[in-house]
Design brief:
6-stranded parallel β-sheet, 8-stranded mixed β-sheet, 33% helix, 370 residues, globular, Dihydrodipicolinate Reductase, domain 2, NAD(P)-bd_dom_sf, 17 strands, alpha/beta, Gfo/Idh/MocA_oxidoreduct, 2 domains, Dehydrogenase, Rossmann fold
Length: 370
């Protein structure tokens, strides 16, 4: 007898352009034995009806309250802008629903801690969308490091371009939100946040750090209108510190599109080295590649990902990684395991980001969680 499928309601679906349309809908439909998309709620009933019709979803809810209260919904997917996460996630949890919330979980550490505590209190599963952690390349990288490919890790160095937060944006309507630091959706929290979640999985926690956050660009050109828009989000993020293992860590994220490699992450050890590369610093949504070398004098060579890491998943990176995360969520709900990134995991990444902000503000060193 087939297991019952989990019924999902999506908040924030705009056909053809939203993250939910690009990632969540195809990811869920790639897992037909685990999930069915039951309904959608947007800012208006008319918007929800248009999205439901365009995406072939059975039901459009009048509003979020109706969706989270529906007995036909098991899981609420929150895919809207960061400032709305807190209220929507709380409403879903208080209605007894499990939640998949996009990263960042909250607009700052305090919101994330509150949502994680509420999920524990109500006994529901909260999963956060740090899907770089389940990318095939990151999972294989973790295996290589754990199996001793590089020996004892001595240091790791990461440089990347944020793709956004450069000299211009495509559209005022979709891009201006990312320019305002108060919205909690910055280069520090989004591409670097996703990458920090993956880095912690592979190399362990950061013990202490110092940081610089800089605004070298104070205004950005909106190409659709020609207007110059103010930017308060940092376009330069520099972090240096020590991992709990004692290995040193150095990170530099900078705003704008890459000229060449948009991501260059090196792990140096006593027995060898591994390099992770990609077209931008958004490790959660770009095709990554690995290369490595062992011993003195050996040249770096491509490290092929075993086919088992990709088989059975959507070939497109974006829905593929999100599908892997949803599959873990389904397994956790059925088996009582905790393999998907949880709200508690998200809090740990938020604490690391808060430590970066604290160190940059004070000019001293900070310890995440201290």
């Amino acid at each position: 007898m087939a297991e019952q499928r989990f019924r999902v309601g999506i908040i924030g679906l705009q056909p053809g352009r939203s993250w939910a349309a690009r990632a969540h809908v195809p990811a869920l439909r790639a897992l037909p034995e685990d999930y069915e998309i039951v309904g959608v709620a947007n800012s208006s009933l008319a918007s929800a009806q248009a999205a439901a019709e365009a995406c072939g979803i059975p039901r459009a809810f009048a509003d979020v309250d109706a969706l989270v209260a529906s007995p036909d919904i098991d899981i609420v997917a929150v895919t809207v802008k960061v400032p709305h996460h807190h209220a929507l996630v709380k409403a879903a949890i208080e209605a007894g629903k499990h939640v998949y919330c996009e990263w960042p979980l909250g607009n700052g550490l305090a919101e994330a801690e509150e949502m994680a505590a509420l999920a524990r209190q109500r006994g529901v599963l909260g999963v956060v969308g740090t899907q770089a952690r389940v990318a095939p390349e990151i999972e294989y990288l973790g295996r290589l490091v754990a199996d001793g490919f590089v020996g004892e890790v001595l240091s790791t160095t990461l440089t990347a371009w944020g793709r956004g937060w450069g000299a211009s944006i495509d559209s005022t309507a979709t891009g201006a939100y990312l320019l305002d630091r108060a919205n909690g959706a910055t280069m520090l929290t989004i591409p670097l946040g996703h990458t920090l979640a993956a880095l912690r999985d592979v190399l362990g926690d950061v013990a202490e750090l110092s940081a610089v956050l800089a605004n070298r660009r104070r205004s950005v050109l909106a190409r659709d209108t020609g207007a110059m828009l103010p930017m308060t989000a940092h376009d330069q993020v520099l972090v240096s510190g020590l991992l709990r293992s004692g290995a040193s860590v150095s990170i530099h994220y900078r705003g704008g599109p890459a000229r060449d490699r948009g991501l260059d992450w090196e792990i140096n050890g006593t027995e060898g080295d591994i390099r992770v590369t990609g077209p931008s610093g958004h490790t959660q949504m770009v095709q990554l590649s690995l290369e490595g070398a062992r011993g003195d004098g050996e040249a770096m060579r491509p490290l092929e990902i075993p086919a088992s890491y990709r088989s059975g998943w959507p070939a497109d990176v974006v829905p593929g990684n999100v599908a892997r995360l949803y599959a873990r969520m389904a397994a956790d709900l059925r088996e009582g395991t905790r393999t998907a990134p949880s709200f508690d995991d998200a809090v740990q990444v938020h604490r690391l980001i808060a430590a970066i902000e604290k160190a940059a503000e004070s000019g001293g060193r900070a310890a995440p969680g201290a």
